[in-house]
């Protein structure tokens, strides 16, 4: 796919939807990571780590809220990226940037389009935040208890690598469904279940279509996020409840 895109449309085509992707991260990721850090700090007593079930609960809540905040940009991002797959150039949406996409979807299809696919987005956000955030914190905690690891960048890298792999595995089926719903033409799917059944006809692996590029995208993203976030934790610690 990468070679085909470069040959037919040039290297810059690989960055289709970049403005929407950045806007999505600035809304979605900052919300879910920020909420997790703040709420966790409020619940934590001193230096004692939170129980895993609390990490899961806080991560799920943070992801759910973040999904609603970031869904408009996410919807435009999906459409801009999928434009390259449409062979008939007359049927491409050709959004100039994220704000053009938001404006055109609101005026051409109604502002409710911004929330298109939000059910799958929120479900995915719950899963991926639990995997990326709660699983990262728990994995890091377990590594530190082995005696072979200390709280340094090697541990952060190892824990985030594991968390990124878990996140890709459990969210890819939902990601496939989310992309189908956001990209769907009006009336293409009657409901989420209709979309699920349509995908199921492709076989079990239909839900894992694009797993490798998804892992290649999510893994470095998860690693870099935590490598930076751990440094922010050091230099800008949140006040914890006594």
Task: Describe this entry's structure for a reader.
By secondary structure, the protein is mainly alpha-helical. It has one domain (2-235): Mitochondrial carrier fold (Alpha/alpha barrel), CATH 1.50.40. Helix content is 70%, strand content 0%. It contains eight helices and no strands. The chain has helices at residues 2-9, 18-43, 52-82, 98-108, 118-145, 153-183, 192-200, 211-235. α3 packs across α4, α3 (52-82) crosses α5 and α5 (118-145) packs antiparallel against α6. The longest helix is centred in the N-terminal third of the chain and has 31 residues, at 52-82. The mean pLDDT is 87.
> Percent of residues in beta strands?
under 5%
Sheet/helix structural class: mainly alpha
Q: What fold name stands as the CATH topology?
A: Mitochondrial carrier fold
Mean pLDDT across all amino acids: 87
- What is the CATH class designation? Mainly Alpha
Number of domains: 1
Choose one word for the global shape.
globular
- What's the CATH architecture? Alpha/alpha barrel
Name of the CATH superfamily: Mitochondrial carrier domain
Q: What is the helix content?
A: 55-70%
The count of DSSP E runs of length 2 or more, i.e. the number of strands, is 0
What key phrases describe this protein's structure?
242 residues, mainly alpha, Mitochondrial carrier fold, 8 helices, globular
Write the layout of secondary structure elements.
Elements: H1 2-9, H2 18-43, H3 52-82, H4 98-108, H5 118-145, H6 153-183, H7 192-200, H8 211-235
Helix pairs in contact: 2-3, 3-4, 3-5, 5-6, 6-8
Précis, in short:
This protein is 70% helix and 0% strand.
């Amino acid at each position: 796919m990468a070679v085909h895109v470069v040959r037919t449309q040039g290297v810059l085509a690989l960055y289709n939807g970049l403005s929407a992707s950045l806007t999505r991260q600035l809304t979605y990721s900052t919300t879910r990571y920020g909420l997790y850090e703040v709420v966790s700090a409020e619940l934590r007593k001193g230096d004692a780590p939170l129980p895993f079930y609390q990490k899961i609960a806080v991560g799920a809540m943070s992801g759910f809220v973040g999904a609603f905040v970031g869904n408009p940009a996410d919807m435009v991002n999906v459409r801009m990226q999928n434009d390259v797959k449409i062979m008939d150039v007359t049927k491409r949406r050709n959004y100039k940037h994220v704000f053009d996409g938001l404006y055109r979807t609101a005026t051409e299809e109604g502002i409710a389009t911004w929330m298109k696919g939000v059910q799958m987005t929120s479900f995915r956000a719950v899963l991926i935040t639990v995997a990326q955030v709660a699983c990262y914190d728990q994995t890091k905690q377990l590594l530190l208890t082995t005696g072979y690891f200390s709280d340094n960048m090697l541990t952060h890298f190892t824990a985030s690598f594991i968390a990124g792999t878990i996140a890709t595995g459990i969210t890819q089926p939902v990601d496939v469904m989310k992309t189908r719903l956001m990209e769907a033409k009006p009336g293409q799917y009657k409901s989420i279940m209709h979309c699920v059944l349509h995908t199921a006809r492709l076989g079990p692996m239909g839900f894992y279509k694009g797993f490798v590029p998804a892992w290649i995208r999510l893994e470095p993203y998860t690693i870099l996020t935590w490598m930076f976030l751990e440094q922010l934790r050091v230099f800008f610690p949140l006040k914890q409840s006594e």
